[in-house]
Structures are given as structure tokens and as C-alpha cells.
Amino acid sequence: MRAPPRHRRNLRSPPESSRALTSPERERAGLPLPIFTPNLSRPRERVPDPTSEESHVLSGVPEGRTRGTRMQPHLSRRSSGLATRLTAAAAMLAVATITQAAEKRVIYVDKSAPPGGDGTSWQKAFSDPQDAFLSLAEIPELQVELRFAQGVYTPALPGGDRRSSFFIPLRFDPLDVTIRGSYVGRAGPGPDRRDLANARTVWSGDLNGDDAGRANRSDNAFVIADLFTDGNILIDGVTVRGATSDADYSVNAAFSVSAIAFASGRLFADVAVLDCIFEDNHVHATWAAALLASSDFVTVSECVFRNNRSTDAGSGALFAYARPGTSSEITRSLFESNEGGYGGAIRAQNVLVRQSQIVRNHAKFQGGGVFTNSAVTSSLLLTNRAEASGGAIAGAPSQIGGCTIVENSAKSAGAIFSFNGGLGLRSSILWANSSDDAATTIRLLENVWYPQISFCVIERGMSDIEYSGIPPRFVAGITTEDPAFIRPAGAVDAGTDWKGWNYRLLASSPARGAAPRGSTNGFDLDGRFFDRYRDPRDPDIGCYFLTYSDCFADLDRSWPFLVDDSDFQLFAAAYELTIAPPANPLADLNNDGLVDDADFSLFAVAYDALVCP
């Protein structure tokens, strides 16, 4: 798979910048904490010893001659004083550089602000986001945070140039950029308060504000934001929607683009995308319709990608590229109803996909859900479709572990297609997947190293796996028994909301405790944790655990992990709804699909004890 370009010139003349994300931001994004090293671009000049031969040469005394004895002490004192002053100045410069690097400029953006603001406060906020981005060219700080108030922001005015997009201008110093959205801003009390549910910041490509589904898009911006930098970049709490382009635009562009693109050209830089929503972007994209994220370290966490479409070979939602061997990941995110070429939802290179829901996506070629060369773990892949091969996953995935892969389909290999790889498939459920050619739903072709298949529920067992090249080296623990989901989709559920289905396991499931303890990935899709060193039971197969080590009645899962009044309120709300979901599935303590008196009896024991018994 070819890596995406790290830089490209924006139509309005683009980026190159940087900063190191703060420790809380890096912890939230699951990134390693940084070790600060000042970046002094010019080495300090060395001041020679005034009594050395080198000092004589530098001071203009011909080599081989010495200074007069009467003058030498006087010159030595002058040189020594100069050296002291220069050394002190250099030290002050170094301290100033470190201080400058540690300082962070905060710039405010609020569409309701009057014109002429300088971004120094909510009262003086920029009203145009691009004015805020352009101001980054001149600021002395090496770290900047842009805070966006709620509202809809477009890269051009109604009827404006569709080629316009937000971009970071070129600058010579690296700049680390944090973009945070969904502040209340000037619209209400407490402008610094964030409300991700009710005060969303929206970056929209709909310049005229008249989109109607896929109609009325002739005015929409081709690209909403091109945010390339030579440093770290984080975006948090922004909704991106409405980018639209076709084949004519992509042919004329430097390369086919996404609705929004983030990249860093600096070695070991981070790109992090948190709590963002990408929806209704329809782009002729080589890489992805909604988001291109490219850097040495990439993190996409707690995001939603919905109804995005690539009309080219790009993925329907996200392309993530990272340097091999890094801890880059796509985690705790939802990918629903996206359409693409390779990867209906995700195309990932050297990036782990974990704890995500990948549902009802469609690929024109391969990988109805995911096209990858990396691992997919602790995820639900449900009712995805590929017109060629790999209804759920395709490419050369290195590992699929702790996944539930159900009701996916393709012309060939309705569940998994791997080529030139060596897949490790473990602790996963593959059920009710289908191939149009009525052949196997798992195809591992031209393996270049040994596939390993272990402790899985596979509907037709090993007869459902076709392989060529190097044969599987380790096969164990394969069962064909019905996994006994609580409430899987039935024939009458084809057009219903999939969120009402429940692919957690009944207490009687043969997948319970059926995997060796070394095979689990730690956390399941609900966030429950299995500690293989402390829990006496063996873990379950699939993306949901019944055997887990944390407190089962701690529904809010917040420190200090007690079963207290906040958990009681959550349980009471679920009890009123009865059926899980929509009732909180975590309140279904006996895993029968209902939140009823039997669950209350279990909850009451833990609640009375305050901690789990």
C-alpha cells in the first residue's frame, strides 16, 4: 500500500508547523508522555580560552608571536569579561528559548464576534477561522491552542470559491497546534465551558447552507481543511460535514483529497483526532472521503464516521497512515453507513483498529469494513459488504483478535480476505457471513508466513477457511456451536436500527470461558477489563466479555470505582427501559437481555457493600 503524501500546497497556500501536546492531552489520546528537549536551531559560538594559541589567532595576533607581557594581563581580563558576558547572554537566550517553547498561545474563534478581533479573548475573538489560522504565521510561541465556540463555520462565504479551505500558513519555526471545539463562547454564561452534546462546533462545506442529503451540493467546498504542520497536531470536539468533489476536481488537484486532512512532516510527531464527528462528506478521493491522518504517530479516538462516501478508490471514511512499529491506533469509534473503494469505512496502514463498531459499510472493491495491513481487535463488524472480496476485513491484516464478525457479505470471502500475509486469527466469532459464490467466507491466499487460527467460533469450522502459500501452523480450539447471542438480527430486522440488536453473549453461550487467558486483549467493546493474572476464570471469545475482572456493578466506571448513588441512578434508568439495548447493557448483570428484578438483586448486593463483593 502506497503511503499518502505528507505535504501538499494548498490552493490558498498551505502549511508546515508544530508543538508537543500537553501531558493530559497525550494521556487522553493514549500517547506516551513527552520528554522535552529544547530545539536550539543554531549552536552557540564557542568562546576560546584567552590564553590559548587559538585565542591569539582569533584575536588577530600572528601565529608564532605572543603578546607583550605588560599587556597580557589587561587583555586577559577584558577577554575574560567578554567571555563571561557572552556566556551569560547565551544562557539567557537558552532559557528564553525554553520558556518560549513552554508557553502556549490561546486564540479564540467565535462566529458571533464583531469584525476586527485579534483572538486574544472571547470578547475580541476572530469571527473568521481562516484569520485565526493566518495569525499563526507570526506568533513567537511554539505552541498554540485555537478554541472554537459553537456554531457553523465555512471556508468561504455563500456563493464563494469552492476551492477555499482552512489551512495553516507556512512558517519557519515548528509549531504544535491544538484545535478544540464546542465551547459555549459568547452565546452563554461561562464561555470557556465545553458542551460536546449541545454546543457543537461544525466545520461545513455547505457554503450556501442548502444541502438536502446528496442534493444541492454544487456550491459545496471541495476540501474543508488542509491542516499540514511540521509539529504535533490535535483536533478535539469538532464536527466536519458537507465536503463535496467529483472526478473533474480530483484530476486537477495535486492528489485526490478528503474532507479534512491532517499530517505532520516532523519525525516522531503526533496527529490526534478526538471526539470528532465526520458525516455526509461525498468526495472523489484516492485516500478517504472524510479524514486523511498521516504522521509517525496517529490516534483517532471516540469519533463517529457516518454517511461518508468516496467515489474513487479511497476508503469511505478514514485513511490512517503511521510509521511502522509505533503505537498508533483507531479506538472506541463508530463507523456506520460509509461507502468507499478499498475499505468501506477504514483504510489503515501500520495503525491498530480496536474497540470500535464497524457497521453497514460498503466497499466497491475489497474490505467492506476495513482494508488494512495491521491488526483489528475487540471490535464488532456487522452487516458490511464488499463487491469483490472481504466483506468485513481485507488486505493483509496481521492479527484479528477478540472480534465479533457477523452478517457480512461479499462476492468472494464474505468475512475475511488476506493476500500475501500471514493472519493470526484468535478468540473471535465468525457467524452468518456469506459469499455470493457459495465458497468459503475466509480466504488466506499466497501466505508469506504461517497463519495461526485458534480458539474461535466459526460457523462451518475449518472447512470455511481456504488458504494457499504457507499453510496454517497452529490450529486449535475451533468450535462450530451457535455462539448464543442475546438478540441477533433476524430476517425481519434487515431495515431496522442495528443499535437495538445485541451481540453480547448469553450466560449459556459456548463462547464463555472458551479462550486461553493469554489470548485476550484486556478490554472488551464495553470497556470491561479482563486481568489474565488475577481472574481465576478463562476469558470469553468475541468482542464482549462476561468474564471480566473489574467491578461489574460500577456502571459509571469512574474513580474510585465504587458502587454508589450515581450507579444507582444509572441502574434505575435502565430498569425503566427493561430491554437492553436501549437500556444500558451494562445494567443487564445476568446477561439475559433484560434489566429486571434478577439484575436488581445482583446490583443491590454490590450497592449495599459500596464496593463489589
Can you describe what's shown?
With 613 residues, this protein is of the alpha/beta class. The chain is 13% helix and 26% strand. A 13-stranded parallel β-sheet has the order 1-2-5-8-11-15-19-23-27-31-35-39-42. Helix 6 (565-577) runs antiparallel to helix 7. The longest helix is centred in the first third of the chain and has 31 residues, at 72-102. It starts with 22 loop residues before the first helix and ends with a helix.
Features:
613 residues, alpha/beta, eleven-stranded parallel β-sheet
User: Helix share of residues?
Assistant: 10-25%
Characterize the main sheet. Answer: 13 strands, parallel
Structural class computed from helices and strand pairing: alpha/beta
Strand order of the largest sheet: 1-2-5-8-11-15-19-23-27-31-35-39-42
Number of helices: 7
Using the CA coordinates, give the radius of gyration.
29 Å
Q: Which residue ranges are poorly predicted, with pLDDT under 50 across at least 5 consecutive positions?
A: 5-24, 31-101, 251-255
